[in-house]
Amino acid sequence: MFSNVGSAKETPSQEEIMNKRMAIYIQFQDHIVPWYHLAAIDQYERNIQAVRPDIPKRDSIIAIQFSKEYWAGAFNPLADDTSPLTIKYFGGLGLDGNGDGVANPEDDEDIMFTMSNYLSQYGPTVEDFKIALWEYYQSEQVVNQILTIAKLYKHFDTINIDTHVFPVPVRGYNYSYRGTWGANRGWGGRRIHEGTDIFAGYSTPVLSTSYGVVEIMGWNEFGGWRIGIRDNHNTYHYYAHLSYFNKDLKIGDIVEPGTMLGGVGSSGYGKEGTSGKFPPHLHYGMYKFNGRTEWAFDPYPSLVQWEKYSRQQKK
């Protein structure tokens, strides 16, 4: 029973937790529902629980949680019913996934079996998966985020894709940066600086900090030539003021830490092609999606950690 991990005497390592998650995804996949679809939903639920105080945080291997109405049935007089027979009678969708005769909404195996059964009713294609997600979440943004996670897990054939690196090479190039979050910006109206500026010479390579999928690529009057990448943690990574793009990249492509995205420049603050209105630098921003809205947060603390990690990797 995976749900009893929290009662163990020793706290499991992150590697052990990841292995147990992967094992339960594999256990409940089938020819209609692949493991990476189950894993993507579970990771999305874990992501929003980490940033939403209005959602209870499930302390277990699996993060997915169902409402009592969904599990037991909207007209079930027993909101906490765990009997598969009466749950089915009242139209509930909770199922017994481990054969113990109980449909327990707190049991990881029962939860995963219930989700797998829900998805299997729609069919095996990506389009079927999209429809199932829409019916469940009723949000195009949520559907797109989960599809991104699934795409990454399928491509890399693992859920262990949490490595990050610094967005410019830490050796061989000169660069400097400091915390610039919240500083005033005058061009384009009164606004604050939502990111960190990394100053470097023209054409210094700009690297992907994370695993992710290219979501936006092109011109923006504020950011100039910019690229946006979404990762498996509901985080959107924004790289702006580029001088050029990696010609082999396009929207929808998958990247990994260290993938070359383009070069440092000074583009932006005007119509397409405007450049040179400020010293060359990379504007790096991070935005978090919580299932309802997306907001910017200070990337500086993460950059400090990733710079240290990147330097250690180069030794």
TrEMBL record:
Per the UniProt record, the lineage of the source organism begins with: Bacteria, Bacillati, Bacillota, Bacilli, Bacillales
Cite the InterPro entries for this sequence. Answer: Cell_wall_metabolism_enzyme (IPR050570), Dup_hybrid_motif (IPR011055), M23ase_b-sheet_dom (IPR016047)
In this chain the M23ase beta-sheet core domain maps to 192-290
Q: Name one GO molecular function term.
A: metalloendopeptidase activity
Q: Which residues cross the membrane?
A: none
Superkingdom of the source?
A: Bacteria
Q: Which UniProt keywords apply?
A: Signal
Signal is among the record's keywords: yes
Q: What is this protein called?
A: M23 family metallopeptidase
PANTHER family linked to this entry: L-ALA--D-GLU ENDOPEPTIDASE (PTHR21666:SF289), PEPTIDASE-RELATED (PTHR21666)
Instruction: Say if the entry is tagged with keyword Signal.
Output: yes
